[in-house]
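SH3 domain-containing protein
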Amino acid sequence: MDALWREPPYGLGGTNERFSGNNIMTQGTAAMRRRQESSVDSKIVLRFTGRRRSGDNPDQSLQEALRTRLRVVESNSKDITQLFQDLSARLVSVHAEKDIFVLTFKTVEEIWKFSTYLSLGFVARCLENFLCDQSFWLDAELLRDLEINVTVDEEHLATLYLGLLLQEGSFFAKALFTRSEEDEDNEEQLSFKKNDLLIVRDTGKDDVWEGTMLATGNHGQVPVHAMQPLPYPFYQWFLRKYPGQAGCSPVEKELFESAIVTGSCEAIVDYSPEGPDELQLSQGDRVEIQGLLMRGLSVFIGRHMSTGRSGFVHRAHVKPLNAKPLDRQLVFLTEEEKASLAQVNPYSSEPSESCLLERLFSSDISSVLMSDRSDGTTQNQLSPRASVSIVSPRVSLYHSLNPLPREGERLSFNLEDTFKELDEFQEDPPLFMEENSWEGEKSELSDPTLALLNHEHFQDEFLPLYDLHCSFLWMTFGEKTEDELSGHLESVRECAKRLGMRWAHRRACFVLGRLCARKLKFSQARVYYEEALSVGVNGFSDVPLLVALFTNLTAIYLKQRMSDKLPQILEKASALILCLPCHAFMSSDEVELLKLLLRRAVVLGDKLLEARVCYLISSLYLVLKKTEDTLPFFERLQFLSATLSATEGGPIQPLDLNWLLSWLYHRKYMPYLALASLSLDSREDHSLRDAFQRIELFIRNSVRLNPCWKEGTSLLPAQIVVYLQQALAVAEQGDDIKMQRDLCLGLALTYQQYGALDKAVRCAQQAVETGSHINEEDGFEASVLLGWLLVLTGQAERAQSILEPLLTSLQSTDSPTQQGVIHNLLALCLRHRGRVREAGWHLHSALEISRESGNQRNQALALANLGCLALDSGANLLAERFLVRSLCLFLDLWESPTDEEHVQVYLWLGQSYKDRGKSQDIRACYEMGLLIALHARNLHSQMVVAKLLSVLYAEMLLYCQSIVYYEHCVSVSRELKDKRREGEYLEKLSSLYLSLNTEKSSRKSLDYTKQSLRISIDLGKREEESETWLQVGRIYYLIQEDELADMYLQAAVKTALRMNDPHFALSIYEEAGDVYFKGHRNRMASEVFYRDGSLPFARSIKDVHSEFRLLSKLTELLMNQREQEEALQYATLAVQIANQTGVRENERTAYHRLATIYYNLQQYEMAEYNYLKSLSLCPPALQHPTEARYYTKIYCRLGNITLHELKDAFDAAGYFYLALAAALEDKANPKALYVVYMKLAEIHGSHMPDSQLCQLYIDRAQSLKKVLAGIESSPDSDSNLKRENLSNVYTAYRKSANDMHSTFDFVDSTAAKALQRAHKSHTEPPQVQMGNV
């Protein structure tokens, strides 16, 4: 990411030339302004990619999982917006399918912070924490292998940065060359030197800007090509917030290759010191570097190897002799500084590991019976939280001992090698005499204060005089006010000056200066400091005093802008702060000097100097407890560490500040960044205390993101497994066996809560093995948990082998409660193995033990398990007795955390009532269970019981009540952020509202279906999404909004096509067509879906059954629309396909439909042929009398065709006689028989004269008509009698018809003639089935 703001190698050109190079920073203001005028897109795309470290290419399955998760969380825009607010970016839009976020920025500061987070890996880690499902954190192998990479267009981001600089009006730049007064052509031109810092303002001209020198304040015009905007946004922010000069320029000639070195050097000139604290050098003298020698400073501290004297040395006066850079793993810190920084502890108190584990994973598994949650007879399993033994989610994280400081508290800073609290001084007596307690010179010489201050070398007693907090006010001179102390020290100063006690003189002046500075009397303080420095002593005999004098005096010079005196002392003060390792801060004003040095590092582009200064500034702010101010410098320091690592070409990481950064982000209430930096903490020297601090910090920030974890209404975040495993790894390196066991139990319980039972069993097994090394009691709890987990995983036999030895070992102890627990678990094992009698005995033993010990909760649970056992065995009445007694006990435990067990018992009781058909009692049980779950705010229990109530009311056809409970399920699912279940319940609600069949309910159904559609899209379930699009289209069709219906149906089809599943696409096309085909409006709209969609897919996958079905629908559709010619084509194809299906029913239907079309087209010969073909495919024997109705209808039609259209009365008579035979079989349709009689009478009266037969059929028709008229007019009381008369008539007619053999003699000849007519068009005439009539 450093390449984003990389500074290019600049070259000077002409006045109107622009700098060359590809970097956007080299472009002039005209180019930038043209970009703005051309409406450069102010948005930037952040792309994320999921990949595995074990492979080079992105992992498609992982990427799809991330997309799905993003679609889910995208629906809750509040969370994702808050994420990017923490990342200092403004979210414009999310495009899950393209794996991108579109962001924008409004200020330079936003770009600065976002680019910093991006380079430090926080953006990628935030997305990892945000997008990865909870189950991801439970898979250690996947966790190690997975990573999320994020990328942005760096050039475009740099363009946005420069555009915002111009938009803000003014920004900082540095001069690329020197421009003297002689070079000025215009009086308004400003003179400057190379690397001078200026604040410039765009004047709207292409060639000049307005510039102001930061050092002098001079104002004028500067050429655009002479200015380079400072490349890093951090620089713009720092210089704007902390304006000032940058100090002296470095020497031109550089003899040292490395920026920071240690070792020794050799003098190259003779030098006489200008002050008492400088070393005198002769050419060739060897000087040992004290601390560090830095390229950005002209002075360092050395020790003359001949004389042993220490003092300041000018870098220009020496050359390297045995100089070497810092170790690659240090770069800009010494080993001592790195170690001391690692010891920074922002906690106000030490966390208690045992309290933390007890608070998170408090377990009563060894003292409370387990309810049988793995019951196979009931589907009403409650929440996935751990069973009754897990009470941790109920305990608020803020109601127990909290090792972290509350919000608003001040954090403590413990830097052992830098500053130590000298508690022993607090009990020392004051080191000065009472006022007027001495007289004359003898009294002055006996003054203990004077004697104390006159030590030549540094003493530990002097630390309160020099430290940052002015501890001498209450430790050394505790009984005097500041005014009294000032008077006393003034006397000491005069006395020391008069008696020639130089060190007492210097120290007294220094303390007086500090007192004046505390009162903001800086001029008076400056006088005292200057006097102290003028005292002729070897200052390096007391280095802390020398550092304090130089830094305090320099700070005052900077405050008072005394530029004439500043250069004389600035470099020495800088060397004392930067070059001596483990600097102890003496004054809060030192930050002014450090800011100046940071400005110098900016000008020089010296990253190592910048890093060291940032380290000191951030450390000082931590000591001053200014967490708000220290954060930017720690971020910059971490950024520089990564930058220097890339520059050096090797994996060097001198610092890992992620732990401190996570704490600082926590203080600023930025939970996403706090968790990201915490997860990036890669320090390998963790102690167990550090591991538990990480767990605590993780919990507190997780609670901020999901308050349910605080309120106890949800599980602990699964990511806690990562930190528990880290703590376990640290604990395994030590000797605390009990802590190892507790951590294993915590991991087992966490895995159990999330259903990862196999991992829970492994952790519990490890806890058992670890606990066996402590004592029997510690191993007992782990063994019980292991047994319970084995029961849950179906390993009842293995669980029994673990539990039985425990029960045996408890026989000789006074532990009845633990015996009851083991009896209960053994009962569950035996029940799963089908040994009901033995299970009952163990449960009875557990019940008796609970009664004797007076444990009411265990009694209730034992009775509940007995009820469950009886229910499983089919003894419902016995089960109800046990369950009711259990409920009575639970009612007395209302305030105890037993809501899940209480609800479960109500569900079992309701199941028993359901088996016995007692619907009202079922309702009462379920509703009581819901009330208890609501009272306990147990969301999972609420959802289970509300769903059962919804199903119950739906079965009772009370749809309104069912809707109420399903709506509660939806609200609970949303609170739990369970999108899958929410979608399921929304579909149920939509179906229920649609069944109410009103316009209002239909629109409500439409709304819920659209919500379900949104969830299907979010979850990436294409099949469900397509079906939901289809359902929305159906509802729109029902409420007569056909245009919207068509739009949604088309969307369903498009979604199905994207799945590349022809079978599914075929079904969606057909169902979309069915919406119109089965409706009453716009039925022809289905033709497009059938013809252009389903039919081609059916042919492509050779699904002949679907093809036949679609051809039949198209045929019927066109027939109804009277488009007979086109219908004929599809009907002909249907006949061909029907022959391929091998289903006679399909063939008969196809021939019948084809015959009907021919009939409508008045092609009667073809119609007759296909009707006969259809009849030939009918079953040889009637399965039911009503089947004869089809024969009656077809033979009547054939008779009408031959009689009226083909003019063949003889054949017509044959068909009608066949119709008569069929009609006599169908007693439920007497009207058809009446019509047949009349047709036969007509034939024998007009076409084939036979008066006897004509009169016979007329008489029978008339008598049948009278009977029918009697049935229609008679009341209900006489209807049965009339129907009996009709039945008698049918019997008589059938008998007489059977006697008339001569009447049917011509049937065979009639059929033969029909086949001859059909033979004109078909080569294979059909055979008429006669056996069934």
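thats it. Residues 1276-1299 form the longest helix (24 residues). The first strand starts at residue 43 and ends at 52. bye
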